[in-house]
Amino acid sequence: MIPVIEPIARLSAQLARLPGVGAKTAQRLAYYLLGVPKEQADELAAAIVSARELVRSCPVCGGYTDMPLCALCADTGRDAATVCVVQDARDIMAIEKSRAFFGKYHVLNGALSPMEGIGPDDIRIAELVQRVDAGGVMELILATNPDVEGEATASYIARLFKDKAIRMTRLAHGIPIGGNLEYTDGVTLAKALSGRTAL
């Protein structure tokens, strides 16, 4: 019988709780961390604690920051009239990597999901309404995920603002660049056809 070394088992169990890390990978990481110099392990532990203590939600957009306002909200060069609505703070980085959007953001911190008991009061929709009502927002880009919950959330927000003098747009859905029609699912093809543009 293989002896259980409690500290290693505890470390492996904690690492296995990380997204995308299975039991075997967690065990490998635990043994790797045991083999690094103590200073390196201490730096990793300190970085985790520091991030948890210093990083918080931006009071305007809901994204991550360690300052009174996040860098994007504080940037006066960005277009405050265009607000991109995303489900999660991590989505901001994905859009920023495109280098194609120069407006501001609003993080919902989730999506509507009646099956899981998540309603409009459980995500940051009220804060979005306050932002729009404060004035200056001319367009909302609904960039929620293209799944059932994301579509439901986008539809709810669109209905919420339908009587306001504000432009509502949705990210395009369809075939990715470099994709092959033969391997594209029917729902994606249907979205691509309905969202086709003139040349």
Walk me through the structure:
The protein has 199 residues and is α/β, with parallel strands linked by helices. It folds into two domains: 6-54, Orthogonal Bundle (Helicase, Ruva Protein, domain 3); 77-167, Dna Topoisomerase Vi A Subunit, Chain: A, domain 2 (3-Layer(aba) Sandwich), CATH 3.40.1360.10. It has eight helices and six strands; from the N terminus they run αααββαβαβαβαβα. A four-stranded parallel sheet has the order 4-3-5-6. Strands 1-2 form a two-stranded antiparallel ribbon. β5 (139-142), α7 and β6 (167-170) form a beta-alpha-beta unit. α1 (6-16) packs across α2 (23-35). It is globular and about 65 Å long.
Features:
alpha/beta; Helicase, Ruva Protein, domain 3; Dna Topoisomerase Vi A Subunit, Chain: A, domain 2; 2 domains; four-stranded parallel sheet; 8 helices
